[in-house]
Amino acid sequence: AAGMFLRLLSDIQWRAAHPKWRRMTGSQRSTSTTAEPHPLSLPAQAQVVICGGGIMGTSVAYHLSKMGFKDIVLLEQGRLAAGTTRFCAGIVSTARPVSIELKMAHYSNKLYQQLEQETGVQTGYMKTGSISLAQTQDRLISLKRIASSLNVMGIPCEIISPKKVSQLHPLINIHDLVGAMYVPEDALVSSANVSLALATAASRNGVQIHERTSVSHVTIQKGRVTGVETDRGRIQCEYFVNCAGQWAYELGHSGEEPVHIPVHACEHFYLLTHPLQEPLSNSLPTIVDPDGRIYIRNWQGGILSGGFEKNPKPLFTEGRNQLEIQNLQEDWDHFGPLLSALLRRMPGLEALQIMQLVNCPESFTPDMRCIMGESPTARGYFVLAGMNSAGISYGGGAGKYLAEWIVNGYPSENVWPLDLKRFGTLQSSRTFLRHRVMEVMPLMYDLKVPRWDFQTGRQLRTSPLYDRLDAQGARWMEKHGFERVKYFVPPGSDLLDLDHSKTFYKPDWFDIVGAEVKCCKEAVCVIDMSSFTKFEISSTGDQALENLQYLFSNDLDVPVGHVVHTGMLNEKGGYENDCSIARLSKRSFFMISPTDQQVHCWAWLKNRLPDDSNLVLEDVTWKYTALNLIGPRAVDVLSELSYAPMTAEHFPSLFCKEMSVGYANGIRVMSITHTGEPGFVLYIPIEYALHVYNEVMNMGQKYGIRNAGYYALRSLRIEKFFAFWGQDLDAFTTPMECGREFQVKLDKGMEFLGQDVLLEQKQNGVYKRFTMFILEDHDTDMDLWPWWGEPIFRNGRYVGKTTSSAYSYTLERHVCLGFVHHFDEQTGEELVVTTDFINQGEYEIDIAGQRFQAKAKLYPFSSLFAQRRRKDDVELSGYQRE
Amino acid sequence: FYLTPPQVNSILKANEYSFKVPEFDGKNVSSILGFDSNQLPANAPIEDRRSAATCLQTRGMLLGVFDGHAGCACAQAVSERLFYYIAVSLLPHETLLEIENAVESGRALLPILQWHKHPNDYFSKEASKLYFNSLRTYWQELIDLNSGETTDVREALINAFKRLDNDISLEAQVGDPNSFLNYLVLRVAFSGSTACVAHVDGVDLHVANTGDSRAMLGVQEEDGSWSAVNLSYDHNAQNEHEVERVKMEHPKSEEKSLVKQDRLLGLLMPFRAFGDVKFKWSIELQKRVVESGPDQLNDNEYTKFIPPNYYTPPYLTAEPEVIHHKLRPQDKFLVLATDGLWETMHRQDVARIVGEYLTGVHHQQPIAVGGYKVTLGQMHGLLTERRARISSVFEDQNAATHLIRHAVGNNEFGTVDHERLSKMLSLPEELARMYRDDITIIVVQFNSHVIGAYQNEE
């Protein structure tokens, strides 16, 4: 039956299009692996070898060849487009919550639309539009948020009434709907044929395509890809691209040096029916009913309907087994709830005859976002996999970004949310993946509210204080596998359950975090910040300083004991990382960066530091527990515990000293807090962690000390206009664009990465400005809360998006941070953003379609913060110096 | 008076126990996946016992049900002691020596059994020393005997049964200076118990049975249906061979008085049993022991009463019949149960109910559309119906509980009738025994993959 299905979905005509790799007749289309004569022998070498002939592999080949790469070989173990791609439902949908994924889908749609014309291969492209249904108000809010994003990108999209839904699609039962989102330009394709069209075009551009060729492993020498071993011999190559889909994980692990690609397959079911009595029009829009967990598209006069069930069936956990994709079982009992949802949505289909229940495995990733980029351990080893069942929607855009990455060294957009390096080896455990994807697959259609956390694969990396904090009511979230406290539930008020926190409005922890913030402002709080990435760089001579001076924009040639905030910039002046670096001695430095930098920053430094045994880079993240003492009384607590004077004259801001705290010696104390509040971070060798924590809490009692979590920290830093890397800052943002010129020393007497661009920006101005917005007419109790990604309007025109937001307990207002652009009113061309441009606008922030007036500020409030001290003087004066 | 479904459940589940063979490195290489067991009392206190243990010095697992009569003392003793006797019978000479040396020199003993017990399954602390000494005497004799041959499971089982019964009898004859223990050993000897014990080692399944409890294998046929294979013979009046055997062992003159009203000497239902020295000892011995025994024993009419037509004892034996079965992949489970179950349910129904429970109905027969014309509506109806059936199955997490629910609550249509279940469970103590017997069930689930792999090796 699967064979018949293939014939129905794909058209055989393409085979005549390019005889270079056509060699099979229709009758030989079985997928047996018997050796057949290969008309083309494998080349001994190539610039790029792509493994996998599905939509991803062919798209990468297509884009690479278009960008001028000539020497490309694509290897497919079976037949082109015969894996998940063949079975894919073929829905091209741009309604994606993550901005970069939305852009990829949008590009894919445009690409597929003209592909048939370009290649002569029928792709079955049909612009049908799609309708996402909302059965609840919360669902409608989430759709409105997506609609806002689509609109500002120029993608037509509207929120429509149930009545309008029934006009667009006659079969839909609308009585349980509260609204819907209509995206008229979404499309349907035959995904196998799109892949074949891309292959055809690539082949014309010189890409060599070899089917029935299996890659056994990739050889890596000295951290670089050198070649590929296949069942038909070896190919030397400079770049390898792993587009092996469900087998990407295994392929990554097949070599001597494993490349960890955290993907895991789950069975995915969809139903095909015979045509209706009066066959359905092929232009009927696709229906997505996330509350019913199903999608429905027209197919051959009948329908195709599948979904993402609550109880997924993971498979291939132990790796590849005898199960061929083609032989997976239909499981009607498993599909039952989805069938119920389908008949509830379209009761008129009761009498429609079933053709087949297709079981087509899809691969999922630990965070629901796809995986692309270069391996942190093997240069030239690229990956594009883990599409979370949206392969056809992402295929075009993802292939383009990856091709750009290979050709230009980096894609044209910030793809950090998709970067392979956001994962470490820890997400590569088979058990972790199996459990996590069972959570991820249902999440595809679950309501995504702000600040949700994964429940599986938790308590993996923890601070030594975990149990202590947990016993005191800590509520946890996870970053890069590390458990971090969100806030502490006071004893006796344990009313907070998961369901209550799931809201787009004011969350139930509002007062709890408020109390923690107040304590940070008036007394002192302790936040366990052990998750932060910590590196040490040291050398025998001046190598450490010299290299760091080149890699970081601020001047690191400071007296020993000083701490420097600095960006780690790329050639374009963009933030690859944002760190605090303490000079421990003449020749050694201690570097603190965000939690999720552990893999990326390591790879970045390793790739750029010379291979010199006298220069040592060490990851000491696990060696230290970090306690952040925030608040005006932190100084009192610490001086009592150390018998050392901690006042400004003895321990100025941005200073670092090893000292004893309690009985413990060798505690690294830094006068920074990551919030703009006064205080210290203590880096404690882990065996002393419990002791120091207990001492701090005991001594702190008389100063009113309490535990606090990251939500309080977040509120503090956002109201102080502190940008965080990964949230606000990315590889496309320069210090000049976010008011951090004071952290750039253009005149430090040494060349550094990104210097030219910064110099140019200093002279000519910037094209976007990091701005702080205070919501004016927003009712905290009644209105929807901002999150991030909300469009910003200036004088009614779209100028950018927010990157983070928080409620400021000091201002008693919501604060959003975001970037303002200046688009020319006629041409849309980007113009320089000046201070005047920012200051002279009337701003609005769009939260799920509702606009709120906002006041823009380029500098944080200073008068409001009564407790301002040394540290802020330095940092704020930095802003003012601009 | 009416029990709500949760009340019914709490009664049914009070004694349920499950054991899963732990996975090692994600794999379970045992031919057993695990077992479920449960008991429902009709007597107060219940006279049935159950045991399960893993042999630690040899391979294999032991499971057994014991149906006591004339009190629970004998069933209790057998449930505590029999597996040790079996395990010791199976031990190689060197291990026996090692154990004896350890005892001799006061060193720690090798553990022999790992028990899998419900918290209500107790061992009598007072008698442990006595029991241990008897067991030690047994292994000392085995050491002295050292046949040098490898131990045959069948023989080991038979020896263990006979030896334990012998020890029970001897202990009662010798008595004990401690008056509590003295009374205990007498109660054990004067009451009786059947035993149905399975030993599973790889694909080798041995069932040793004494009395009228029963072992039954659940087999899944190729079409997915379930059938039952008996792995024991009931030792009672319904078994012609048993009647024949008893008659053979006694003079022709007794032929008429041996079996009356389907009972041995008109008194005892099972034709084989542990204890029951009233059917084993000579009249003189019985009188001597009872007279020199404690007052409680003398006051008891039952112990003093000598069975009629009692000419040529012993009339009763504890020697089991052993059946050996090589497990096949289609052998999915084993049910050991006391006669309380088999009185109410046919073995074919037991096989079907447990089989469908263990696999979940839907696994048994996956729906395939194939070439049939099926509409979405028809499929939906079919699936809804299947789900409803499954949900009633999953009310129980324990196959034995599920079986008891059916045994007690089944109506004439073979489905569980809550009202009937509620009535049966709310019977007052003195009435319960008239409507139902104690029920004890162990359901052992086999690992078809492992069994299949064994087969391939052979």
Automatic annotation (TrEMBL), chain A:
Q: What does this protein do?
A: Decreases the sensitivity of PDP1 to magnesium ions, and this inhibition is reversed by the polyamine spermine.
Name of the protein: Pyruvate dehydrogenase phosphatase regulatory subunit, mitochondrial
Q: Which gene encodes it?
A: Pdpr
Q: Which UniProt keywords apply?
A: Mitochondrion, Transit peptide
The lineage's top-level taxon is Eukaryota
User: Where would I find the Rhodanese domain in this sequence?
Assistant: 48-91
Q: What is the lineage of its organism?
A: Eukaryota, Metazoa, Chordata, Craniata, Vertebrata
Cited Gene3D superfamilies: Aminomethyltransferase beta-barrel domains, D-Amino Acid Oxidase, subunit A, domain 2, FAD/NAD(P)-binding domain, Probable tRNA modification gtpase trme, domain 1
Query: Record keywords: Acetylation included?
Result: no
The keyword Cell membrane belongs to this UniProt entry's keyword annotation: no
Alphabetized Pfam families for the sequence: DAO, FAO_M, GCV_T, GCV_T_C
From TrEMBL, chain B:
- Catalytic activity, EC: 3.1.3.43
Specify the species: Agelaius phoeniceus
Class of this enzyme: hydrolase
| Localization, UniProt | Mitochondrion
Described purpose of this protein according to its UniProt entry: Mitochondrial enzyme that catalyzes the dephosphorylation and concomitant reactivation of the alpha subunit of the E1 component of the pyruvate dehydrogenase complex (PDC), thereby stimulating the conversion of pyruvate into acetyl-CoA.
What's the family? Belongs to the PP2C family.
Q: Which residues form a coiled coil?
A: none
| Subunit structure as annotated in this protein's UniProt entry | Heterodimer of a catalytic (PDP1) and a regulatory (PDPR) subunit.
What cofactor does this protein call for?
A: Mn(2+); Mg(2+)
Q: What is this protein called?
A: [Pyruvate dehydrogenase [acetyl-transferring]]-phosphatase 1, mitochondrial
